Structure formats: C-alpha cells, structure tokens
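Researcher: Let's try something more involved. This one mixes different molecule types, so please make sure each is placed in the same coordinate frame as the others.
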Amino acid sequence: MKIFRTPARGAAGLTVAALSIAALAGCAPASSDGPNENRPEGEIHVAVYGDAAASVEQAAADRFNEDSEIKVVIDSIPGDSNYGSAVRTSLGTDNAPDIFMSWGAADIEQLVDAGALLPLDEFIAEDPALRDSFIPTVFDEQVIDDEAYGIPMRGTAPTFLFYNEQVLADAGLEPAQSLDELLDQTEVLAADGVTPVALAGADVWPTQMWFQYLFARQLGNEAVADGLSGDADVWESEGSRTALTELRDLVDAGTFGTSFDSVGYSNQGTTALLSQGRAAYELMGTWNYATLAAADADFAENDLGWVAFPELTGGAGAPGDIAGNLANYYNVAADTRYPEAVAGFLAELYSDDFQNDQLAIGNLPPTTNAGELVAANQDLDARTKEYLDFVIGLVEDAPSFQLSWDRAVPTESTTRLLDAISGYTNGSLDADQWVEQMQSLTATD
Amino acid sequence: MPSAAPRARRGTTQARRVGQHEAGRPGAVWALPAALYFVLFALLPLGFAVWLSFTSYNGIRLAPPRFIGLENWTRLVADPVVLGSVGTTLTLVVVAVATQVPLGLLTGVWAAGPQRFRAVIGALYFIPLLMSTAAVSVLWSSLIDPNFGLPNALPFLFGDGNLLGDKGSALGVVAFIYLWGATPLYTLIFQGAARTIPLSLYQAAQLDGAGIVRQFFSITLPQLRNTIITVSILIVVGTFTAFDIILILTRGGPDNGTAILPFLMYEQAFVSFDLGYGSAIAVVLVVLAAVVSTVMVKITGYADMAGTQEGI
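Model: All components are placed in one shared frame. Result:
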C-alpha cells in the first residue's frame, strides 16, 4: 500500500513521475489546423449519448451509409453525466469523435476557446437548410461570436405541469391556472392525503425548474438571461426577491410535501407518486411523457394531463414565456478528416425520416416543419399526437424560451448553482445568502 | 535468473536465520513487476496530480494545462466547502471504524464457532459481498424512498422519511449502507483469525472458571489484536476512497453534508471540469489518508506485527 512508503522512497517515486510528466509534456499537442490524417480511414465517428434516443441516430447513420463511401460509425457512450468528460478528454487525440452532442452555449464555450470545434458556416453556405430548417432561437443558441458551431437535433424540451386527472377530479379540482390557485389547491389536496406537487429534490435539477418559472414570471426571461450572464443587479432586484418569497411560500405551505429532498427522479420516485395517484402535479420536461408511459402505460393513456405553468398576477414576465432545454446539438471536431462527409451526415438531422423517428419516441424536433410532420404522421397514436400538438403550441406561442440555468451558467459554476438551488429550498440559505451566491457564481471575471 | 543465487547468499544475519524462507529468492528482481506497476499506476498519476494542482486545466487537450502557481492552493485553504469536506470525511471514517470493527468482530467470532445453521446464516449474511456497490446504492435509494420505501412502512421510526434532506441523517444513511455492505468481508477475516486461536487457551480458561464473556475479553480479543488493526486500516483506507454510494445516492447533498473529499474531487474535476482544483483536492486526500494511516501504524505497533501466541 502506497501510504506505507517511507519518505525517501516516495521522493524517488515523485522524481520519476516528474521526469515522466516532463517527457509527456514534451510531446506536441495535436494540432487543430485542418484535417487530421491519423484519424481512422474512410470513417466518421459519432459519439452518441447512449439513451433511448440513440437508436434514431443509428438509423440515420444506416441511411447515410447506404450511399456513402465514407462510413458513419456510431460509438455509443453511456448516457450519463460522464458523457461530457469522455468527449472532452478525447478531443485533440486521433481517437476523438468527429461528431458529438452538447446541450447549449455554455457547454461548448471552453471548446470553442480551445479551437477544438469546427465553425459550421462553410457547411451552411453550401447547404443553407442546415440553418434554415431549424427554429431560429434554437439554432442561434450555439452561434458564438457570429459563427455557428452546432446543428440542433433530438427534441425541444420545455418544462410544464403534468397532472393526474383522477386525483384532481377526486378532489373536485381543475388544473391550476394561477399560482394562487395552486396554493389554494395545496390545502385541499394535502387534506386528502395527497402530495400536491411531486418534486424530485434529491436530484436538484427538478427543483431548479421551479426557480426558472417563478423568475420567468416575475422578471421576464430576458432579465433572467442577463442575470445568468453576470448582471448582479438582477438577483437582488425586487422581482427576484418576490420570486424567492413565492418559492418559500410554496415550500412552507407543503406544496411539495415535507420529504421532497429525499425523493428522486432518476429512481422513479416522482414518477411513481404521480402515476399511482399519490401526487397531483409534477413540473417536468417533455421527456416525462415517455418516462410515465414506460412506467404505467395505462395511466399515460387515461389519467395523465398536462398544462402550461400557471400565470401570476403582476410580474414583468410575458404570459406564455417558457423554460427548459432548447434542444441538443451536434458539434464537429475541428480536425475531422472528412469535413464534406460530415456535412452530408448533418443534413440527415433535418430529413423527414430523422424527424419522424424522433416523433415516434415522443421527441419534438426543433425544426420549423415539425408541426406539419406531426399532422401528416399516420403512425402516431391520437394521445401522442395530442401531446405533441400541446408542446408545439407551447413553443410557438412563447414569446421567449429560457434555457435551463445549469446549461446557461459557465461549466465551472454548475455545482455551485445546484448547491444554491437546494440550499434555498431546504432552508439552509436565506434569500440574502442565495442572492449573494448567485451573484458570485454568475460573476464574469 | 542467474543473479538470483548470489543475491540470496548475501542475505543479512536475520535472513540467514530464516534461511529456508529465503532459499532461491532473487530479492529485488522479484519485486520488479509489482514495483513497476506501482510506479506506473500509483506514483506517476500521483506526481501528475501534484503537478496539475499548480495549473489551470479544463480537460481539453488542445488547451494544455497552464501553470498558475499557488492559485488553486490559496483558493483551497480558504474554501469552506473543502474544509467542511475534510470534517465530513473524517467523521465518516470514525463512524465506519466504530461500527464496522465491533460488528465484524462479533459476527466473525460467532461464525467461527460450531453452532448449528451457522453456515446457512453465514451464507445469507455474506450476500452483500457478492453485489457491486453501484447495485447496492441503487437498491438502497429505492429502499429509503420516503413514499414507497421503508420509511413509509415504518413511520414511527423514520417520521416523514426525509432521510436525505438532513445532513446528519444523510451521512448516517451512507455510513449504514457501508456498514451493511462492507462488514461481511471483515466478518470473514475475523472468522478466519478466530479459528486460529488455539482451543487449549479456552480449555485452560474454562478450568480456571472463566465464563464466556471473560474468555472473549481475556483470550479472543487480545488474540485478535493484529486482525483488529489490519481491519481498521482497511476500513480507514476504504472509507477515504469511498465514492460510489455517495455519487449515486446523495450526490454530496444536502448542502454538501455528504460531500467527502473523493466526491468533491470528482465534482470539481469531472462536473465543473476544473482539473487543477480537483487535483489539489486529490493531493489533500492523499496526504490526509497517509497521515491518518501512518499515525495508526505508529500508535498500534502494526509495523512490528508482534505475534500473539508466544509461549503457546
């Protein structure tokens, strides 16, 4: 065991290590100028985030490979928080993926600074549909310093309230249209022994969704975006304080029950609460439909309802503003060996085949013709169509779309953001401390 | 190997005394594979981590580590999260030793006895050893769910079941799962050690009228002294590198209440992609573990490993 080494031996070891590091450091870093001829010949490697949606990307690769000499190889990386580090640490090596996925601008900023990403403007000049097929606000998220770096893919994922129709009906209630109504319903539902709103506080990011909407309603999405990019005044403004008070009121009224910090989303905790009728509402993203349907198809078919986040009286936010994940993006390594073939594969992302495959798994593609495709698609069942139409309406009618905070702040601030979110909700941070924390973690040096 | 024999002959007086054991052994050359392995996979990364702790590096090869002197270290000594984490880590280590050693000792000594059904119960008891810690963590995250798990079934014991919402209870849950998952291994070690205690000692004690409790404290416990020390060190080292349960179950929460140093290191290096700062935390962890282990070795006389059966 190394901890039993004597100091002298340890020092010798460190010297060896230091020498080796010096030798390693002497190796020239891989250049990002132009194609890297050491990459696999005749292949483009795509690092796919290995979850349920990966099959759609595999199908796209299969279609592309039918007519292409350069073959797309799908490398599935386990779909969890390690995806980012797996991709990041491989960039610059001969084995790095040519194409990989990201979530927003903050995700790729460091990669752009390091020159690891290929600007896609030349691709777009050749094939304008690579830009024009997508909803402009979604596409523009990864335009950095006037250069486009990502092509949107997978689904647009705003968050909204899911509810159990049966639970509300039993309590004689209609879906809440305002925050006051939600607070009133809390009392009735709690008296029935039901958790009014299922909240997966153990995972923290679901709690963040409540902050996003209350701040959207009180401050407006533009002010929130300013705050996230370093405007300290936003966080101590009156609207911010009001949003915090509202959140405190919800927690204190028992809207989320008392044990939400121990309830998870990843272990299906809230999924079971809502589908088994032990909770009335859950604020979650579009993907929750697939999750609930997988857990209890009967419930998703008959008793699941959905409604936009309640409006507030007062507040500077525009009615209908939404928050959530804009989309995912495919990015391209700066030293890809076959840029033309990569451009060809990216064109798959706006093809009808790719979009219909996304619809089939409940993802709403971030394209301008998604609505038409839903209407024309004969394979979707009525319930899924109804759901997708609701999401399309929500997105189309929204004056603005607030990107999830943990995808908007710089990568190095993510954990501090989540600490602030959970700290305020569980009472270990008061409003002043929360404001201070947000100002500190969003501050730009 | 040709150099083997002469080396063996150049042994010390002590080595010659145990000549049988030394016969045909080429000394240092035999240790080469292990030594190389150790240098490559322990010392080299450790040295690399020390170097990284003086740099700013976000994990992108195209933007190599940039030397920033003591910046990470000045940040670290003033970071309340790191200081809190050192406290949490040491607390978990103390709790782990204080619970796992007694339980492992008692069950191990019991399992070494001749009772009926011992093998069956023992086999059941060892089941956690067969499961990966990740699986154990997922299992327990469902078991302690406040709405569908044990807390819901036993409200008189768990109240509203918000076990992961409070720093103390969350750390307690983590310590309990380690206790549940790791103790069978120590039971096994204690069982083996207890079986090597000569029966003649117990027979003599019985003749002198010693009861079972007196036998345990006057014979079993002293005889197992070295095993207790070994197990304690294993637990200390194991707990210092514990990570999986915390990653899956609590993610360091609530309010960093379960964020022990290995988790904090992971979070900084692979969630925030601040590999320089993460490496500084890693170095703190290595130093802390080395200090604690060294102190334990010194205090307990582990290095001497004096026998417990002289004169038997």
